[in-house]
Fold:
Amino acid sequence: IENTGDATVETTTLADNVAQNYGGAIDSTDETDTTKSLTVTASTLSGNSAGLHGGAIESEMKLTLTNVTISGNTGPEIIDHYERQITLTNLTIAHNTGKGLSLHNSPTTLLRNTLLGANSDGNCSAAVTSNGFNLADDTSCGLTNTGDHQGAAFNPHLGPLQNNGGLTQTQLPQSGSPAIDAGTGVNAPARDQRGYIRAGAAPDIGAAEFDGTIPASLGNISTRCFVQTGNNVLIGGLIVSGSGPKKVILRALGPTLGQPPFNVPNALANPVLELHDSAGALITSNDNWMSASNAAAISNSGYAPPNNAESAILTSLNPGNYTAIVRGVNNTTGVALVEGYDLDNTAGSKFANISTRGFVGTGANVMIAGVIVHGPDSENVLIRGLGPTLSQFGVPNVLADPILELRDANGALLQSNDNWKETQQAQITATGLAPPNLAESAIVRTLAPANYTAILRGKNNTTGNALAEVYEAN
Structure:
């Protein structure tokens, strides 16, 4: 980026750029107008280089960087800044070839919660003015304010530049890093570079929070429908996205549905639950949950099925696609519920998509999908009801014209759709997940943290196999 006016860079990766002279990633210069400014937030500058100055940034205007990772760049200095105010808050400037930071005649320097380490020619060209709570693994920056840490004893112990969640790569402090809980929440962002929630009054120094909380996610999916045999069993799909394993519990309920307060007729007496990977290979299965090898862990999770004949699988899933299949023992049939619960919403991975395929009947045997949105943020979701498309995959007896309803925790109707192009066509198309068939249904909506229900039924009480899906669409 070459910039001579006011500019903002947000949630952006600038990588592997080469400048012969100045500013490998950004060259931002106006030598005459002192009001011009460059603002960079929630971004990563990596692998860039410059021949003369500023392997990542060359700046001669007011510069504000917040929640930025600057890693693996090459130049005499990585940030080269002249004669204007510079504000650096929660930066990670690490593993660069050159000096990390070089400031020339800057009238005001505001350095807070910033981490500098493992830069080949030292972290700073000269002492800087610190606002406190910074960390450097040498003494070149002259960090002596409240909460500052400097010297070889303060190796930040960063992980590699990689996907740690969010939209840009970061370097996450590893367990035992002196950057963890060493920062301040005063005049500092409440979220880290990934958008994860920082830890209160003592967040980490640097761009990424070691124990940051994912601000919103799909925390639970449950779908109820009539389980038949063969192609008409209940099939739940889920996608885990992000980094690292996700601890989940999957449940298949039947007898509980027939008991008060639910009183669902024809409940499946003895459900069996199978978990398959993206290739269809069986990972594990369970008939009666108390027979599981980790029955104690299932009980301690707080999500043990109420009935001993019901099934549960508690496991950790790496990012990927998975399928849960519910069928009746000895090909019995009846209404069942398949559920997936997120047991660790602080992990770097999350539910990105949840879907269920089953036979949609009438009355109490329509398909009912439940979703829980964890807070504190709202979640943008796309909900789809597919029928005709399934015939392309060899599924018989598909639901010809699905109708989709979205209801709140009290059962009040929030939104409904018959054919997806009738309403919200532009919004649905923009997600890239528009249903393939015009007779299928979709709803785009922002959901506040709460419980929700999506009901899928056939138009004019028609029946058939259908797919209910919920996608994260942030």
About this structure: The chain has two domains: 1-213, 217-472. Residues 347 and 440 are 34 Å apart (CA to CA). The helical segments are 295-300, 425-430. The longest helix spans residues 295-300.
